[in-house]
Specification:
alpha/beta, nine-stranded mixed β-sheet, 18 strands, five-stranded parallel β-sheet, elongated
Length: 500
């Protein structure tokens, strides 16, 4: 898959993570009850060649459209929901679970004679042994449809976006879709549809639809083997049914976003290891809708949705992504955990700000670090113990020459930066060209400024700046008889004395 250039800065993604709690989303669709029966398998049944599951615990949670609700609430989004259930025990249990999740903003319509969909999964460790389905797969009755329309439209004015989660069980009817999409359009509220089946005409006018690659292929009766074929299929549906955009989830390839106007965006999969793809589409629809609800550009919302899907496929069962997981995954994808420690001044300032948003303290120290020796390592270790992340300002070659003379540095700035970046105590290295790190300190605004014990509080550059906004200045004890100058002198003496 051809990956599109990333047009959104790391700060944009983190800002979107932080703003999701302000989103207000209405979820309408096929509601289910997911049961998980977990235990251990230690023997095979003597009655048949099947495993015996020794049950240890059981849990129930909302599934189907209810899993979209769970994903949104996990991100602190304000959620309401509506759907049809059976007039049975499972329906009442599901009503209670969704009432708790939404703070009482769940409007479930009980239909006599209908069986609430219950999907029971039997799990041993990370292995699914069996799933059983108990459900009615048929269109809801006319009274139930009208009750659902009334419930959805009553909740709509409080929403800034809508998710329609169609699992093909009969709760998402053409009448419901027509009424909901029409009223949402009148109120200028975007509608995101997770579709099912072959007839996408019933979703006409939706702002975004989120088919997976199999659903897109089936709906367009097309072979999807390359980017051109995906684009052709998506454009056909957009032109035929008036969709604002199509966001195709392409499994291990990531996702592709095709807006009605403008170029496509291709985003590679963010998951590192796939354990279970259950519910990944729900996560994409949830984050996409929440992003749109707070005014994020569609491409940015899709990029964050892709990262969220990468989180949940690394878990077992119908999992969700939490805010801290999402933020950390954004950082990891942007190189924070990928060994990319040599940063520009602008990127270092950005990273410092992001670390602080995650509740981490940021430290700073600086130097020439010409020939890295145990004294340097001890000082950096001491500085790192005073903070969660340590940024090291490194004098450029020109700066070192001005400070120490034309014979220095012994190693160029690239080599010195690589050596520093290899240390576990160092989280970022920034080369600066000025004689002092004052401007870099002002850009990074560290919570803690560290220098060696041979300095005093009065001689530490930037100490007044850091103290001025409430930061700390720390003097780290030095290792005796360890200095670059002494090391160079000993190397020179050894060279003059010749081989011994």
């Amino acid at each position: 898959m051809l990956e599109s250039p990333d047009t959104y800065a790391l700060a944009d993604r983190i800002a979107l993570c932080d703003s999701l709690a302000d989103a207000r989303v209405l979820v309408v669709g096929d509601l289910m009850l997911d049961r998980f029966v977990r235990g251990k398998v230690s023997r095979i049944s003597p009655e048949a060649p099947i495993p015996i599951l020794a049950i240890e615990d059981e849990a129930a949670m909302p599934g189907g459209a209810g899993n979209v609700v769970r994903n949104l609430r996990a991100l602190d989004v304000q959620v309401s929901c509506a759907g049809v259930v059976g007039d049975d025990t499972a329906g009442r249990e599901l009503d209670g679970l969704l009432a708790d999740l939404t703070g009482g903003k769940a409007r479930l319509v009980p239909e006599p004679g209908r069986r609430t969909a219950v999907k029971t999964r039997y799990v041993s460790g990370s292995h699914h042994l069996l799933r059983t389905d108990f459900e009615t797969v048929a269109p809801v009755t006319a009274p139930s449809e009208q009750g659902l329309i009334d419930a959805a439209l009553a909740l709509l004015p409080e929403a800034a976006a809508v998710v329609v989660s169609d699992y093909g069980k009969g709760g998402v009817t053409p009448g419901l879709l027509a009424a909901l999409v029409s009223e949402a359009a009148r109120r200028e509220i975007p509608v995101v549809v997770d579709p099912k089946g072959l007839d996408f005409a019933r979703y006409r006018g939706a702002s975004v639809i989120t088919p997976n690659k199999a659903e897109l292929a089936a709906a367009t009766r097309a072979t999807l083997a390359n980017d051109a074929q995906y684009a052709r299929a998506a454009r056909t549906l957009i032109l035929t049914h008036g969709f604002g955009a199509i966001c195709v989830t392409r499994s291990e390839e990531g996702l592709s976003l095709y807006p009605a106007h403008g170029p496509a965006t291709h985003i590679r999969a963010a998951g590192r290891e796939v354990y279970d793809v259950s519910g990944a589409g729900d996560t994409v629809a949830a984050i996409l809708a929440a992003g749109i609800a707070v005014g994020a550009p569609l491409g940015l919302a899709a990029a964050l949705a892709n990262i969220g899907a990468g989180i949940v496929v690394g878990k077992v069962g119908t999992a969700v992504a939490h805010p801290d997981e999402l933020r950390l995954a954004v950082l990891r994808q942007s190189g924070e955990d990928a060994g990319q420690k040599e940063l520009s001044r602008e990127r270092a300032a950005e990273m410092a700000d992001l670390w602080r948003r995650l509740g981490l303290t940021v430290g700073f120290t600086n130097g020439c670090f010409d020939l890295l020796h145990p004294g340097h390592a001890a000082m950096l270790d001491g500085a790192r113990r005073e903070c969660d992340r340590l940024i090291v300002g490194l004098n450029s070659d020109a700066s070192v020459r001005r400070l120490k003379g034309p014979t220095r540095p012994v190693q160029d700035e690239a080599a010195r930066a690589r050596m520093l970046a290899s240390l576990a105590s160092v989280d970022a290295v920034v080369i600066f060209d000025e004689d002092t790190p004052l401007e870099l300190i002002k850009a990074v605004r560290p919570d803690m400024l560290a220098k060696g014990g041979d300095y005093t509080m009065e001689t530490v550059v930037g100490a007044d700046v850091v103290a001025g906004y409430g930061g700390r200045v720390v003097l780290v004890p030095l290792t005796p008889d360890r200095s670059t100058t002494g090391l160079i002198r000993r190397i020179s003496d050894a060279s003059r004395s010749g081989p011994g």
